[in-house]
Amino acid sequence: MIRRAQPWLGTLVEVTIGAMGGAAPDPQNPADLQAANQLINLAFAQIGQVQRLMSFHDAASDVSRFNRAGAGEVLPVDPHTWDVFQLAQRISDSTEGIFNIACAPRLVAWDCLPSPASARPVYEPSTAVLRCEEGSMVRKLAAGWVDLGGIAKGYAVDLAVEALRAAGVTSACVNAGGDLRVLGAEAWPVAIRDPLAPFRTARTVQQGDGAMATSAAYFSAKRHAGQQVCALVDGRTGEPLPGRSSITVQAPRCAVADALTKVVVATAGTQHPALRAWDATAFII
Amino acid sequence: MRYQPLLALSACVLCAPAFATQYLSAEQAQQLMFPDATAFRPQPLALNAAQMQQIEKLSGLPARSVNWRVVGAYKGDALLGYMVLDDVTGKFELISYAVGLNPDATVRQVEVLAYRESHGGEVRLPAWRRQFVGKSASGGGLTVGEGIANISGATLSCTHLTDGVRRIAAIAQVMLKK
After folding, report:
1. What is the pTM of this model?
2. Domain that holds residue B31
């Protein structure tokens, strides 16, 4: 097993190679080590690409260009960004808008995100801000800001895992701060933090081929102007979802698992029909 | 001899990490960043007050230290770049990392060497540490072995680390740029 970590997407991303071509790499063998490190570089390159395209903080990203655009503008974006916008829209549709990437103005107002411009749009849950159009184009339908913080980490993990699979890796795990995906038949142990004591393990689960994402407010919760806020927002109302529990969603794709955690937090239950529609399951600790 | 690790462990109960991983040694990181290098030479930096001011202006962050651990990577006499070693501490975490820099002071690569979390009394919890017992411990640190768990849970922000990289990029601009 060979594991490295780099800072991306505002968190630590770990890439672990368990087996290449069916055999475990030997860290003492220079050829194995070099091959594994090249694969890990390949995985990090995918993650880096997602950061460049979708960061809310980077003025040159597709997301920032969209946020600066005026209502009615049509912008070309990278096919990956378009994919994530499209997936976000489908998940929003299947969750009655609980998941909504347009709630960024709330996160900016709570100082969870930096302000991309001086004129601050108001978050209106029922107003569509973005529409995906043919040819990797997106149309800004109304004034507003979008943030892909609730789905892009998962998407980056998916891209990294697909790149490893295409390069012949048969067992691997990519973990972006709790949004993780396992490649291969062999299950990996995953420690879930205890939401009441985040430095302890509440439960260890065996994760096989597929993805898992855990969401909780214990590190992002804070008080802002007398109100308890955090980085989780109910897209229907724009209200924060602090809560004291930890939500884990398991799904084939990490982008989907990542996005659906917000639905479980908002409904405080694991039975929302969107979970079944996306082939996902959830548990609450 | 066989009692020494046990003594070290019990002495360290209060400072033992709740979650910890060692990824790379400094030597492994420099090899990874500069695979063509034939020599690595320590070139420690000491900043004077004017240089620290310049770095603070460039990075928008306090320069923090006078002394910095820098290694030059060479192929024969040709400079390939530098690696700067640093540690950052957050409210709950300690991260040791290395920044690889090109001769023109642009950042080439960032690698985390080791990550540790601790949180007051909760670090006493031996369950996590127990995973490491019996695993290889070459180089004095913990080495990742089979069966060590990934962690899933809300993201611990790595603002301190990204700030640290920004500070080192500024140090490189002021002190190392060719």
Report:
1. 0.86
2. 16-176
